[in-house]
């Protein structure tokens, strides 16, 4: 398939989404459901309460294969790839030499000679070119995005609803661990305990051809526990409440992981990686700006691109994400501000279409799910 | 959908409606607008006593995903505001023509109503826009 064709691409579930009453939008070059018939807030709450089923087939899957695969990936990403056990995944970023972010990624270690990286849909072409340019002959870089489907099954009832469909033990599968070879409803899949909703849940990889069957089986399983399909609109509010970054908004080639509050995914001791020197320098000097999380104090909703201003009305930063937080019950957002303004409790002013609305910086995630015994929540 | 666009209302191409009763018009947004907006989470309206002019922005509606301006279908002085929308903006989604009304104005230029669309013409406009 052509990556740069003018027409947005369709996942194998395009017709299924339409049949479910989805409103479709162009997202990252893909026609994706932004919401189904009952709307974003209902889908959000359903995921927090029961389970939500997400089509994330637009995401890219890139395999690194060969005897030096681990070394090759280690050079590309900020995390500790060599230290990752087989069948474990970790959230990392890839950086440019100046520390700007190429993409944020989930790195799955299948074994020393085989690493899988899941990348953002809009970045597949860019990432694959960057990866190939920088691994040289160390290993093969295989873009399997077209052949690989990905569905996310997220929420507190996810394990209960999924276990009857698979022989793979889920209770013992910890956060960011995966079963490489399993079946769900008879369909060959890989099952990872991961997601982008700040809930417990799973992401299931399968062959593109099997996606409609897997979707149908998961839709039925979801319905059995009061779950339903969930679109990109609620995916965004869910991830924002969990303070999970969105590439293109909160992370770009002009922001570094240190500025973005992702210092915890930069493992300087892991080895040499692209951007390390710039990030070391920034860490020792301290970043001049930081990504701050804020709640709106005044009546207003911050949106991507709204200016953040000081008392005198001078622009000091910009909102990168903002929306109502249906579970936290407040309007929330993220934005870059001077480092001194990123401390919890600091009052900010958001220029909401000409009206200056007060916001207050808060530390950490806006929402944390009740802890469970089977998995550990990742930072922040 | 029948009933989506009541016959006793007048409509604008910006997807507001007006229900004229003598010198007073009640104003809100149409079912089409609501479907496009998705879940409404905040409605910002003028205060009683302020004046609005046909075609000008008189307020805004925030949904989960976006903010949209409201354009006055007619000119006049605001005599009543649907204040329960402050606490319950979802009324706009649930019942855009009744509980979800937004403002009532005392018309200063009643003749402006001639520029508005009746229900059939508005639905024709929606069909053309969709093509």
How do the helices and strands line up, and which of them pair or pack?
The complex is a heterodimer of chains A (380) and B (131).
Chain A: E1 9-10, H1 14-19, E2 23-27, E3 30-35, H2 40-49, E4 52-55, E5 60-65, H3 69-76, E6 88-95, E7 101-111, E8 114-119, H4 124-135, E9 140-143, E10 148-154, H5 158-162, E11 178-184, E12 187-192, E13 201-207, H6 211-224, E14 228-229, H7 232-241, H8 276-285, E15 289-296, E16 307-309, E17 315-325, E18 330-338, E19 347-352, E20 355-362
Parallel strand pairs in A: 1-3, 4-14
Antiparallel strand pairs in A: 2-3, 4-10, 5-8, 5-9, 6-7, 7-8, 10-13, 11-12, 12-13, 15-18, 15-20, 16-17, 16-19, 17-18, 19-20
Chain B: E1 10-11, E2 16-21, E3 24-29, H1 31-37, E4 40-44, E5 51-52, E6 57-63, E7 67-71, E8 76-81, H2 84-87, H3 91-94, E9 103-107, H4 119-130
Antiparallel strand pairs in B: 1-2, 2-3, 3-9, 4-6, 5-8, 6-7, 8-9
Structure description:
In chain A, 20% of the residues lie in helices and 33% in strands. Chain A is globular and about 65 Å long. Chain A is built from 8 helices and 20 strands. Chain A folds into 3 domains: 9-59 and 146-241, 2-Layer Sandwich (Gyrase A, domain 2); 61-143, Aminomethyltransferase beta-barrel domains (Alpha-Beta Plaits, 2-Layer Sandwich); 288-362, Aminomethyltransferase beta-barrel domains (Elongation Factor Tu (Ef-tu), domain 3), CATH 2.40.30. The model of chain A is unreliable at 373-380 (pLDDT under 50). In chain A, helix 2 (40-49) crosses helix 7. By secondary structure, chain A is α+β, with helices and mostly antiparallel strands. Chain B is an alpha+beta fold. Chain B has a single domain (10-109), classed as OB fold (Dihydrolipoamide Acetyltransferase, E2P) (Beta Barrel). Chain B is built from 4 helices and 9 strands; from the N terminus they run βββαβββββααβα. Chain B has helices spanning 31-37, 84-87, 91-94, 119-130, and strands at residues 10-11, 16-21, 24-29, 40-44, 51-52, 57-63, 67-71, 76-81, 103-107. Chain B has a 6-stranded antiparallel sheet with strand order 1-2-3-9-8-5. Chain B is globular. The relative contact order of chain B is 0.24. The model of chain B has no long low-confidence stretch (mean pLDDT 95).
């Amino acid at each position: 398939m052509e990556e740069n064709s003018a027409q947005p691409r369709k996942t194998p579930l395009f017709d299924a989404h339409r049949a479910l009453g989805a409103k479709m939008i162009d997202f990252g070059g893909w026609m994706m459901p932004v919401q189904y018939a009952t709307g974003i807030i209902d889908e959000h709450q359903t995921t927090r309460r029961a389970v939500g089923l997400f089509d994330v087939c637009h995401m890219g899957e890139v395999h690194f294969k060969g005897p030096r695969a681990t070394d090759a990936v280690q050079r590309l990403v900020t995390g500790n790839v060599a230290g990752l056990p087989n069948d474990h995944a970790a959230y990392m970023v890839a950086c440019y030499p100046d520390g700007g972010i190429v993409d944020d990624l989930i790195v799955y270690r299948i074994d020393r000679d085989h690493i899988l990286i899941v990348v953002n849909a809009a970045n597949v072409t860019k990432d694959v070119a960057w990866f190939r340019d920088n691994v040289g002959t160390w290993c093969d870089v295989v873009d399997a995005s077209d052949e690989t489907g990905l569905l996310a099954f997220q929420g507190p009832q996810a394990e209960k609803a999924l276990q009857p469909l698979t022989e793979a033990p889920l209770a013992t599968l910890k956060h960011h661990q995966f079963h490489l070879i399993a079946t769900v409803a008879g369909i060959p899949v890989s099952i990872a305990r991961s997601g982008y909703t700040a809930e417990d849940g799973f992401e299931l990889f399968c062959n593109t051809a099997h996606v409609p069957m897997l979707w149908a089986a998961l839709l039925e399983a979801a319905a059995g526990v009061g779950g339903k399909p969930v679109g990109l609109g609620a995916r965004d509010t869910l991830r924002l409440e969990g303070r999970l970054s969105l590439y293109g908004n909160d992370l770009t080639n002009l922001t570094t992981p240190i500025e973005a509050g992702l210092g915890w995914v930069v493992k300087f001791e892991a080895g040499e990686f692209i951007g390390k020197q710039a990030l070391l320098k920034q860490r020792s000097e301290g970043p001049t700006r930081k990504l701050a999380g804020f709640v709106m104090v005044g009546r207003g909703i911050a949106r991507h691109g709204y200016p953040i201003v000081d008392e005198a009305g001078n622009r000091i930063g910009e909102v990168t994400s903002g929306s109502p937080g249906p579970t936290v019950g407040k309007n929330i957002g993220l934005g870059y501000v001077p480092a001194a303004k990123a401390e919890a409790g600091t009052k900010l002013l958001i220029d909401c279409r000409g009206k200056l609305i007060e916001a207050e910086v808060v530390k950490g995630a806006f929402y944390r799910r009740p802890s469970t015994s089977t998995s550990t929540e990742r930072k922040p | 959908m029948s009933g989506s666009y009541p016959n006793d209302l007048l409509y604008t191409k910006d997807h507001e409606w007006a229900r004229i009763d003598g010198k007073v018009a009640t104003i809100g947004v149409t079912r089409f607008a609501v479907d496009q907006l998705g879940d409404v989470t905040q409605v910002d309206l003028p205060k009683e006593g302020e004046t609005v002019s046909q075609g000008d922005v008189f307020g805004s509606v925030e949904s989960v995903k976006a903010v949209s301006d409201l354009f006055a279908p007619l000119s006049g002085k605001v005599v009543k505001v649907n204040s329960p929308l402050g606490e319950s903006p979802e009324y706009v989604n649930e019942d855009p023509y009744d509980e979800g009304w937004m403002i009532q104005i005392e018309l200063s230029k009643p003749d402006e109503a001639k520029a508005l669309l009746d229900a059939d013409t508005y639905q024709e406009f929606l069909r053309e826009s969709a093509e």
